[in-house]
Amino acid sequence: MTKTSDWLISFNSSYQRQVHHLLTERKQQQDKTTTISITGGKGGVGKTSISLKFAKELAAEGSKVLLIDCDYNLSNTSIKLDLPLTNNFYSLITNEKSFEECLYQDGNFHLLSACNGNVDMFDREMRMEEFIIDIINEHEGEYDFILLDCPAGIQRESLTLNAYCDYRVVVVTPDKASITDSYSLIKVLSQKFGIKENHLLVNKYRTPAQFEKVVSTLSETVENFLGCRTRILGGVKRVDISQNKFDKYFLDTTGKNDLQRNFLKVVGRLTEELGRPIVPTEIFPLEKLNTTFNNLNA
Ligand SMILES: Nc1ncnc2c1ncn2[C@@H]1O[C@H](COP(=O)(O)OP(=O)(O)OP(=O)(O)O)[C@@H](O)[C@H]1O
Ligand SMILES: [Mg+2]
Question: Which residue puts its alpha carbon closest to atom 3 of ligand 1?
Fold first, then answer.
Protein backbone atom coordinates (compact mmCIF):
# COMPACT_ATOMS: atom_id res chain seq x y z
CA MET A 1 0.00 0.00 0.00
CA THR A 2 1.16 3.52 -0.75
CA LYS A 3 2.63 5.45 2.13
CA THR A 4 0.23 7.96 3.57
CA SER A 5 2.78 10.70 3.43
CA ASP A 6 2.98 10.24 -0.32
CA TRP A 7 -0.64 11.24 -0.50
CA LEU A 8 -0.92 13.85 2.16
CA ILE A 9 1.83 15.88 0.60
CA SER A 10 0.42 19.31 1.12
CA PHE A 11 -2.61 20.91 2.65
CA ASN A 12 -3.68 22.82 -0.39
CA SER A 13 -6.84 22.44 -2.44
CA SER A 14 -5.94 18.90 -3.44
CA TYR A 15 -5.84 17.73 0.18
CA GLN A 16 -9.40 16.49 0.26
CA ARG A 17 -8.98 14.68 -3.03
CA GLN A 18 -5.91 12.96 -1.65
CA VAL A 19 -7.73 11.93 1.52
CA HIS A 20 -10.63 10.68 -0.57
CA HIS A 21 -8.24 8.61 -2.65
CA LEU A 22 -6.72 7.15 0.51
CA LEU A 23 -10.16 6.22 1.83
CA THR A 24 -11.18 4.59 -1.44
CA GLU A 25 -7.96 2.61 -1.56
CA ARG A 26 -8.48 1.51 2.01
CA LYS A 27 -12.09 0.41 1.47
CA GLN A 28 -10.96 -1.87 -1.34
CA GLN A 29 -8.71 -3.85 1.00
CA GLN A 30 -10.10 -7.20 2.07
CA ASP A 31 -10.02 -8.72 5.54
CA LYS A 32 -8.45 -5.67 6.97
CA THR A 33 -8.11 -4.74 10.59
CA THR A 34 -11.14 -2.82 11.83
CA THR A 35 -10.19 0.72 12.78
CA ILE A 36 -12.33 2.73 15.17
CA SER A 37 -11.76 6.25 16.42
CA ILE A 38 -13.12 7.35 19.77
CA THR A 39 -13.87 10.99 19.39
CA GLY A 40 -16.32 13.73 20.33
CA GLY A 41 -15.02 17.24 19.96
CA LYS A 42 -15.33 18.38 23.56
CA GLY A 43 -12.67 17.78 26.20
CA GLY A 44 -13.26 15.71 29.31
CA VAL A 45 -16.29 13.79 28.04
CA GLY A 46 -14.64 10.41 28.62
CA LYS A 47 -12.98 9.60 25.28
CA THR A 48 -9.86 8.15 26.90
CA SER A 49 -11.73 6.12 29.53
CA ILE A 50 -14.07 4.74 26.85
CA SER A 51 -11.16 3.99 24.47
CA LEU A 52 -9.33 2.03 27.14
CA LYS A 53 -12.49 0.22 28.13
CA PHE A 54 -13.30 -0.77 24.53
CA ALA A 55 -9.73 -1.94 23.98
CA LYS A 56 -9.55 -3.95 27.19
CA GLU A 57 -12.93 -5.61 26.75
CA LEU A 58 -12.24 -6.52 23.12
CA ALA A 59 -8.88 -7.96 24.19
CA ALA A 60 -10.46 -9.83 27.10
CA GLU A 61 -12.87 -11.46 24.65
CA GLY A 62 -9.96 -12.74 22.57
CA SER A 63 -9.40 -10.06 19.94
CA LYS A 64 -5.96 -8.64 19.37
CA VAL A 65 -6.20 -4.91 19.93
CA LEU A 66 -3.90 -1.95 19.46
CA LEU A 67 -4.92 1.32 21.09
CA ILE A 68 -3.09 4.38 19.80
CA ASP A 69 -3.16 7.45 22.01
CA CYS A 70 -3.50 10.28 19.49
CA ASP A 71 -3.35 13.00 22.13
CA TYR A 72 0.29 13.12 21.19
CA ASN A 73 1.65 15.52 23.80
CA LEU A 74 -1.07 15.36 26.48
CA SER A 75 -1.34 11.62 26.70
CA ASN A 76 -3.55 10.22 29.45
CA THR A 77 -3.73 6.52 28.67
CA SER A 78 -0.69 5.53 30.75
CA ILE A 79 -1.84 7.70 33.63
CA LYS A 80 -5.20 5.96 33.73
CA LEU A 81 -3.50 2.56 33.75
CA ASP A 82 -1.00 3.61 36.43
CA LEU A 83 1.87 2.99 34.03
CA PRO A 84 5.06 5.03 34.09
CA LEU A 85 5.17 7.92 31.62
CA THR A 86 7.69 7.45 28.84
CA ASN A 87 8.96 9.29 25.81
CA ASN A 88 8.60 6.17 23.70
CA PHE A 89 6.32 7.87 21.22
CA TYR A 90 8.96 10.49 20.57
CA SER A 91 11.57 7.74 20.26
CA LEU A 92 9.38 6.12 17.64
CA ILE A 93 9.07 9.36 15.71
CA THR A 94 12.83 9.83 15.77
CA ASN A 95 13.47 6.18 14.88
CA GLU A 96 15.41 5.59 18.10
CA LYS A 97 13.18 2.67 19.05
CA SER A 98 11.18 0.13 17.16
CA PHE A 99 7.40 0.05 17.21
CA GLU A 100 7.43 -3.09 19.38
CA GLU A 101 9.81 -1.46 21.88
CA CYS A 102 7.41 1.46 22.24
CA LEU A 103 4.34 -0.62 23.03
CA TYR A 104 2.93 -1.52 26.41
CA GLN A 105 1.71 -5.09 26.01
CA ASP A 106 -0.68 -6.95 28.25
CA GLY A 107 -1.75 -10.12 26.48
CA ASN A 108 -3.96 -9.18 23.53
CA PHE A 109 -4.03 -5.55 24.56
CA HIS A 110 -1.30 -3.37 23.10
CA LEU A 111 -1.04 0.32 23.83
CA LEU A 112 0.98 3.00 22.09
CA SER A 113 0.95 5.87 24.55
CA ALA A 114 1.97 9.31 23.50
CA CYS A 115 4.06 12.02 25.18
CA ASN A 116 3.34 14.37 28.05
CA GLY A 117 4.59 17.91 27.57
CA ASN A 118 7.63 16.84 25.57
CA VAL A 119 9.37 20.05 24.50
CA ASP A 120 11.13 18.43 21.55
CA MET A 121 7.79 17.18 20.34
CA PHE A 122 6.41 20.69 20.65
CA ASP A 123 9.30 22.08 18.64
CA ARG A 124 9.10 19.46 15.98
CA GLU A 125 7.06 20.28 12.92
CA MET A 126 5.32 17.20 11.71
CA ARG A 127 1.98 15.99 10.51
CA MET A 128 0.83 13.79 13.33
CA GLU A 129 -2.09 12.34 11.37
CA GLU A 130 0.28 11.12 8.65
CA PHE A 131 2.49 9.49 11.23
CA ILE A 132 -0.44 7.69 12.85
CA ILE A 133 -1.98 6.61 9.54
CA ASP A 134 1.40 5.20 8.55
CA ILE A 135 1.48 3.21 11.80
CA ILE A 136 -1.99 1.85 11.02
CA ASN A 137 -0.94 0.85 7.52
CA GLU A 138 2.27 -0.77 8.67
CA HIS A 139 0.64 -2.82 11.42
CA GLU A 140 -2.72 -3.74 9.97
CA GLY A 141 -3.03 -7.45 9.74
CA GLU A 142 -1.30 -7.88 13.09
CA TYR A 143 -4.44 -6.78 14.92
CA ASP A 144 -8.17 -7.45 14.82
CA PHE A 145 -8.88 -3.93 15.97
CA ILE A 146 -6.92 -0.70 15.99
CA LEU A 147 -8.56 1.94 18.16
CA LEU A 148 -7.65 5.61 18.21
CA ASP A 149 -8.11 7.71 21.33
CA CYS A 150 -8.58 11.13 19.73
CA PRO A 151 -7.76 14.44 21.36
CA ALA A 152 -10.41 17.08 22.03
CA GLY A 153 -11.08 19.65 19.37
CA ILE A 154 -11.81 19.56 15.67
CA GLN A 155 -8.40 20.39 14.30
CA ARG A 156 -7.21 18.94 11.03
CA GLU A 157 -5.21 16.08 12.61
CA SER A 158 -8.16 14.70 14.51
CA LEU A 159 -10.61 15.06 11.64
CA THR A 160 -8.34 13.28 9.20
CA LEU A 161 -7.85 10.40 11.63
CA ASN A 162 -11.59 10.21 12.23
CA ALA A 163 -12.29 10.16 8.52
CA TYR A 164 -9.62 7.54 7.91
CA CYS A 165 -11.11 5.08 10.41
CA ASP A 166 -13.75 2.57 9.38
CA TYR A 167 -15.96 3.63 12.29
CA ARG A 168 -16.24 6.58 14.63
CA VAL A 169 -17.63 6.41 18.15
CA VAL A 170 -18.72 9.91 19.11
CA VAL A 171 -18.73 10.27 22.90
CA VAL A 172 -21.17 12.88 24.12
CA THR A 173 -22.26 13.97 27.60
CA PRO A 174 -25.60 15.55 28.51
CA ASP A 175 -24.48 19.14 28.41
CA LYS A 176 -25.10 21.67 25.68
CA ALA A 177 -21.43 22.29 24.97
CA SER A 178 -20.74 18.61 24.40
CA ILE A 179 -23.78 18.17 22.15
CA THR A 180 -22.87 21.29 20.18
CA ASP A 181 -19.22 20.25 19.80
CA SER A 182 -20.22 16.77 18.65
CA TYR A 183 -22.58 18.30 16.09
CA SER A 184 -19.75 20.52 14.84
CA LEU A 185 -17.44 17.52 14.54
CA ILE A 186 -20.04 15.51 12.61
CA LYS A 187 -20.77 18.51 10.40
CA VAL A 188 -17.16 19.10 9.38
CA LEU A 189 -16.59 15.36 8.88
CA SER A 190 -19.65 15.25 6.64
CA GLN A 191 -18.94 18.38 4.65
CA LYS A 192 -15.18 18.05 4.28
CA PHE A 193 -14.73 14.28 4.21
CA GLY A 194 -18.10 12.91 3.09
CA ILE A 195 -18.56 10.89 6.30
CA LYS A 196 -22.27 10.15 6.61
CA GLU A 197 -22.45 7.67 9.46
CA ASN A 198 -21.23 7.74 13.04
CA HIS A 199 -21.87 5.79 16.21
CA LEU A 200 -22.98 7.53 19.37
CA LEU A 201 -22.20 6.73 22.98
CA VAL A 202 -23.70 8.86 25.76
CA ASN A 203 -21.41 9.11 28.76
CA LYS A 204 -22.05 10.51 32.24
CA TYR A 205 -25.83 10.56 31.98
CA ARG A 206 -27.81 10.45 35.21
CA THR A 207 -31.34 9.49 34.21
CA PRO A 208 -33.02 7.60 31.40
CA ALA A 209 -34.74 10.82 30.34
CA GLN A 210 -31.39 12.55 30.07
CA PHE A 211 -30.03 9.72 27.95
CA GLU A 212 -33.09 9.88 25.66
CA LYS A 213 -32.84 13.63 25.28
CA VAL A 214 -29.20 13.55 24.23
CA VAL A 215 -29.83 10.74 21.74
CA SER A 216 -32.87 12.37 20.15
CA THR A 217 -31.46 15.89 20.08
CA LEU A 218 -28.20 14.93 18.44
CA SER A 219 -29.38 12.21 16.10
CA GLU A 220 -32.39 14.19 14.84
CA THR A 221 -30.40 17.38 14.29
CA VAL A 222 -27.65 15.51 12.52
CA GLU A 223 -30.15 13.75 10.28
CA ASN A 224 -32.29 16.81 9.52
CA PHE A 225 -29.52 19.30 8.88
CA LEU A 226 -26.65 17.16 7.66
CA GLY A 227 -28.35 14.08 6.26
CA CYS A 228 -26.10 11.90 8.43
CA ARG A 229 -27.04 8.68 10.17
CA THR A 230 -26.33 8.11 13.85
CA ARG A 231 -26.17 4.59 15.18
CA ILE A 232 -26.80 4.38 18.90
CA LEU A 233 -24.44 2.19 20.88
CA GLY A 234 -25.81 2.96 24.34
CA GLY A 235 -24.35 4.76 27.28
CA VAL A 236 -22.35 4.80 30.47
CA LYS A 237 -23.95 6.31 33.55
CA ARG A 238 -22.20 8.97 35.58
CA VAL A 239 -20.69 7.31 38.61
CA ASP A 240 -20.38 9.54 41.65
CA ILE A 241 -17.01 8.49 42.92
CA SER A 242 -13.76 10.41 42.89
CA GLN A 243 -12.53 10.89 39.33
CA ASN A 244 -9.29 9.15 40.17
CA LYS A 245 -11.16 6.09 41.34
CA PHE A 246 -13.58 5.96 38.43
CA ASP A 247 -11.11 4.54 35.92
CA LYS A 248 -9.96 1.75 38.20
CA TYR A 249 -13.56 0.71 38.70
CA PHE A 250 -14.58 1.20 35.07
CA LEU A 251 -11.55 -0.47 33.49
CA ASP A 252 -11.79 -3.62 35.54
CA THR A 253 -12.51 -6.51 33.17
CA THR A 254 -12.89 -9.21 35.77
CA GLY A 255 -15.39 -7.95 38.30
CA LYS A 256 -18.49 -7.98 36.10
CA ASN A 257 -19.90 -5.04 37.99
CA ASP A 258 -23.03 -3.34 36.61
CA LEU A 259 -21.02 -0.81 34.69
CA GLN A 260 -19.01 -3.55 33.03
CA ARG A 261 -22.05 -5.67 32.23
CA ASN A 262 -23.72 -2.72 30.53
CA PHE A 263 -20.57 -1.83 28.66
CA LEU A 264 -20.32 -5.36 27.31
CA LYS A 265 -23.66 -4.72 25.64
CA VAL A 266 -22.18 -1.65 23.97
CA VAL A 267 -19.19 -3.68 22.79
CA GLY A 268 -21.53 -6.41 21.57
CA ARG A 269 -23.65 -3.98 19.56
CA LEU A 270 -20.65 -2.46 17.88
CA THR A 271 -18.94 -5.74 17.04
CA GLU A 272 -22.17 -7.27 15.80
CA GLU A 273 -22.65 -4.38 13.44
CA LEU A 274 -19.10 -4.81 12.19
CA GLY A 275 -19.92 -8.39 11.39
CA ARG A 276 -17.44 -9.77 13.91
CA PRO A 277 -19.48 -10.35 17.06
CA ILE A 278 -17.36 -11.15 20.07
CA VAL A 279 -20.04 -11.34 22.71
CA PRO A 280 -22.94 -13.79 22.24
CA THR A 281 -25.47 -11.78 20.31
CA GLU A 282 -28.51 -13.56 21.70
CA ILE A 283 -28.00 -11.62 24.90
CA PHE A 284 -28.90 -8.42 23.10
CA PRO A 285 -30.13 -9.09 19.57
CA LEU A 286 -29.53 -6.08 17.40
CA GLU A 287 -33.00 -6.01 15.90
CA LYS A 288 -34.42 -5.38 19.34
CA LEU A 289 -32.18 -2.44 19.86
CA ASN A 290 -33.88 0.89 20.07
CA THR A 291 -33.05 3.99 21.94
CA THR A 292 -35.09 3.30 25.02
CA PHE A 293 -33.36 3.07 28.31
CA ASN A 294 -35.17 -0.07 29.35
CA ASN A 295 -33.90 -1.92 26.36
CA LEU A 296 -30.39 -0.66 26.82
CA ASN A 297 -30.23 -1.71 30.43
CA ALA A 298 -32.39 -4.81 30.40
N1 LIG B 1 -19.28 7.72 33.40
C2 LIG B 1 -18.42 8.43 34.17
N3 LIG B 1 -18.72 8.71 35.46
C4 LIG B 1 -17.85 9.40 36.22
N5 LIG B 1 -16.66 9.87 35.80
C6 LIG B 1 -16.31 9.62 34.53
C7 LIG B 1 -17.17 8.90 33.64
N8 LIG B 1 -16.54 8.79 32.45
C9 LIG B 1 -15.36 9.43 32.58
N10 LIG B 1 -15.21 9.93 33.81
C11 LIG B 1 -14.07 10.72 34.32
O12 LIG B 1 -14.10 11.97 33.61
C13 LIG B 1 -12.77 12.45 33.45
C14 LIG B 1 -12.51 12.75 31.99
O15 LIG B 1 -12.46 11.50 31.29
P16 LIG B 1 -11.44 11.29 30.10
O17 LIG B 1 -10.07 11.68 30.49
O18 LIG B 1 -11.63 9.91 29.60
O19 LIG B 1 -12.03 12.35 29.06
P20 LIG B 1 -11.45 12.78 27.65
O21 LIG B 1 -12.64 13.06 26.79
O22 LIG B 1 -10.49 11.77 27.16
O23 LIG B 1 -10.68 14.12 28.01
P24 LIG B 1 -9.64 14.94 27.06
O25 LIG B 1 -10.50 15.66 26.07
O26 LIG B 1 -8.95 15.84 28.02
O27 LIG B 1 -8.75 13.93 26.42
C28 LIG B 1 -11.83 11.38 34.01
O29 LIG B 1 -11.44 11.75 35.31
C30 LIG B 1 -12.71 10.13 34.04
O31 LIG B 1 -12.32 9.23 35.05
MG1 LIG C 1 -8.48 11.97 26.48
Answer: 238
Three-class DSSP category at 35: strand
The CATH architecture that domain 31-296 belongs to is: 3-Layer(aba) Sandwich (3.40)
- 286, with CB counted inside 10 A (0-12, 13-18, 19+), is exposed
Q: Is there a contact between 40 and 181 (Cβ–Cβ < 8 Å)?
A: yes
Q: What is the reported pTM?
A: 0.86
Determine the 3-state secondary structure of 88 from DSSP. helix
Tell how far the Cα of 1 is from the centroid of ligand 2, in angstroms.
Answer: 30
Render pLDDT for 94-150 as a digit per residue (tens, 0 to 9): 999 999 999 999 999 999 999 999 998 888 888 899 999 999 999 988 999 999 999
CA–CA separation, 15 and 258 (whole Å): 45
Cβ–ligand 1 distance for 277 under 6 Å, the answer: no
Q: Are 132 and 22 in contact (CB under 8 A)?
A: no
Q: Return d(Cα 141, Cα 34) in angstroms, integer.
A: 10
Q: If you measure from the C-alpha of residue 153 to the centroid of ligand 2, how many angstroms do you get, rounded to a whole number? A: 11
Query: Contact, 205 vs 238, CB < 8 A?
Result: yes
Domain boundaries, the chain: 31-296
Q: Is the CB of 206 under 6 A from ligand 1?
A: no
What residues have their beta carbon closer than 5 A to ion ligand 2? Answer: 47-48, 76
